[in-house]
Amino acid sequence: MTFDVTSHPEPTTEARRQQILADPGFGTNFTDHTAVIDWTQGAGWHGARVEPYGPITLDPAAAVLHYAQEIFEGMKAYRHANGGVHTFRPRENARRMNRSARRMAMPQLDEELFVQSLEALVGIDADWVPSGEGEALYLRPFMFSTEAFLGVRPAREFTYRVIASPAGNYFGGELKPVRIWVTRDFTRAAPGGTGDAKTGGNYAASLAAQAQATEKGCDQVLFLDPLHDNAIEELGGMNVFLVTADGRLITPELTGTILEGITRDSVIQLARDRGLQVEERRVTLDEWDRGVQDGTVTEVFACGTAAVITPIGELLDGDRTIASTGTGEVTQSIRAELLGIQTGTVADRHGWMHRLV
Ligand SMILES: *Cc1c(COP(=O)(O)O)cnc(C)c1O
Fold this sequence. Notes:
The chain has 357 residues and is an alpha+beta fold. The protein has two domains: 165 residues, D-amino Acid Aminotransferase, Chain A, domain 1, CATH 3.30.470; 166 residues, Alpha-Beta Barrel (D-amino Acid Aminotransferase, Chain A, domain 2), CATH 3.20.10. It is built from eight helices and 18 strands. A hairpin with a 3-residue loop joins strand 2 and strand 3. Helix 3 crosses helix 4 and helix 6 crosses helix 8. The two termini are 18 Å apart. The mean pLDDT is 95. The structure holds pyridoxal-5'-phosphate (PLP). Its EC number is 2.6.1.42. It holds the Pfam family Aminotran_4. It comes from Nesterenkonia xinjiangensis.
């Protein structure tokens, strides 16, 4: 499928773009274009195009507004020293979007078409890719139901879009450990639910807990397992790893309530490459707490596309604070390697990078 291209009649001025790129922030500024593909039952995917970025006209009865049939992906494109713009493991995002689509009764999008949509958008908006350290063009593919119908069944019309936003360092400049709030009032996902689908509803359900975290002076929320309330699951949008003094990495196993992070998978691979033992299993809050206290757990970090790898410092559980582990060597070193691969300064031995432009 080829993408019809309609250029923005009044693109952002060079001066304004330079101003945005000088301090990109996260998720507030968007490039001049968007890639779009529509789906209708019977006809399948059609109308692939790149068009000017702007508001979407939607029928007030559009199913997404009522029943939240929506999924998304998140990835980053980096400018390399060779001038090319490269993204990280895009086919993994394509596969995950299709897994999310299956769970949410939405259509499958061909992996190749997914990658083509990124190439089409970044091709026209390549000047928006920042080149500062830790900076990237954040790509947000998403799909939602547009059919105007209030009956409850999978919709028969969808749109898939990609928008792009220049992104700075997610948690600000230096690698400072984040403070985490353990929620005891809310869970994020339940067995058989949608926890392993990247869907907006999971985020909507996490916001009350996130608001509590902010109130407690924390950056993020840690969700516990929905049935027993003592195994750790993940943060609202990042997976969690514990590092032990004897060189093991421990991360909660994927049981259907945790989102399968591509950063998580990559960290596991890089850790195994170094000869570190990785354990994907049930890990309780007690194990974390005891481990930090007796010195067997030396580092804890969270990982995801937006922040890549970020150390977890204090963990607040009610009135109790679980001792801080600070920024450890393993966290720093795996982060440096992963970022190096993504930004093109470390050899891409697993063939993870894909050149878009
Ligand atoms: C996207 C996401 C992650 C991280 O996935 P990456 O592919 O590493 O970006 C983790 N948890 C949730 C809930 C997510 O939505």
